[in-house]
Write a structure and sequence with these properties.
Length: 288
């Protein structure tokens, strides 16, 4: 039995989808009954909250492998540490952790590296999937201004990033969960090309049928804009720091891990943009 945590999130939801397609025996964890009610028919779901150990223990019953996806908060280390403590108490289970490229060089990936070190110290068999930025984040965080203003914003200058489609991350995760021999390994997962936000804007423009621009802001102005939009202080600070990491070229390297696992090139941004073109259309056209 494989437990997939964060099953309602971007990557977790795609892992569930692909695992079911392959016929793997899985259990998916959700934070609330309302979210669990939207899960695919026939999927075994369980309500689990990282802050409540009493919900973690039942979720682990009968499980021998876990896909671990922690929430993107400043408390990531503490939440995943609480989960790992419960895993250790329940027996020797294999952890496949969704992590991030960058190590301790930026706030977001630093939290993941701290958690990796905790997993390593636990003695549990494990594999780390260190993914670069997700293509789907453009849909999740930027479509509102792309639709309403024909633009998206940031402070990463001309820094290129080898962004990756979450469908590729999920495909690798399912292979690792279904197989053996990956214990103690870490894999750096990237797309096949590094793109600047200016190049991304050009590619979105082609599928949107109109000019989309990337507007680079001073870091303080970008942070103020995020705070005004309701982003928590820590998240806004971490995002500005991540854009600094991108701006200085620390996220541009590409790897061949996806191709080695999947036997094909990573999904290109052009393919992603084509598949998600509906998200970039003008608001009035989407509504019609």
């Amino acid at each position: 039995m494989i437990l997939i945590t964060g099953a309602s999130g971007n990557v977790g939801r795609e892992v569930v989808k692909q695992a079911l397609t392959l016929g793997l025996t899985i259990r998916a964890s959700f934070r609330s009954p309302d979210v669990a009610a939207k899960a695919p028919a026939g999927l075994e779901g369980v309500i689990m909250d990282y802050t409540k150990p009493e919900t973690i223990r039942p979720a682990l019953h009968g499980v021998d492998k876990i896909f671990l996806v922690g929430p993107p908060t400043r408390h990531l280390l503490a939440l995943e540490a609480r989960f790992i403590k419960e895993v250790r108490a329940s027996g020797r289970k294999y952890i496949v952790k969704l992590s991030a490229l960058g190590g301790h060089q930026s706030i977001f990936p630093s939290g993941h590296r701290d958690s990796e070190e905790n997993v390593e110290a636990s003695g549990l068999p494990h594999t780390f999937l260190r993914a670069n930025a997700f293509m789907q984040n453009l849909v999740n965080y930027n479509t509102a201004t792309i639709r309403s203003r024909d633009a998206f914003y940031g402070c990463q200058g001309n820094g290129a990033v080898s962004i990756i489609d979450i469908r590729d991350i999920a495909a690798v995760a399912v292979i690792v969960l279904a197989a053996t021999g990956h214990e103690g390994r870490s894999y750096a997962l990237t797309g096949g090309e590094a793109l600047t936000n200016g190049q991304i804007a050009e590619k979105i423009s082609r599928v949107a049928g109109r000019k989309i621009s990337y507007i680079d802001l001073p870091p303080t102005e970008f942070k103020t804009a995020m705070l005004s939009a309701g982003t928590p202080e820590w998240s806004a600070e971490a995002m500005v720091d991540l854009h600094r990491f991108y701006r200085v070229g620390k996220a541009k390297r590409t790897t061949e891990e996806v191709e080695r696992f999947l036997g094909r090139k990573p999904i290109t941004f052009d393919q992603f943009a084509h598949d998600y073109a509906f998200a970039f259309r003008e608001e009035e056209k989407v509504a019609s």
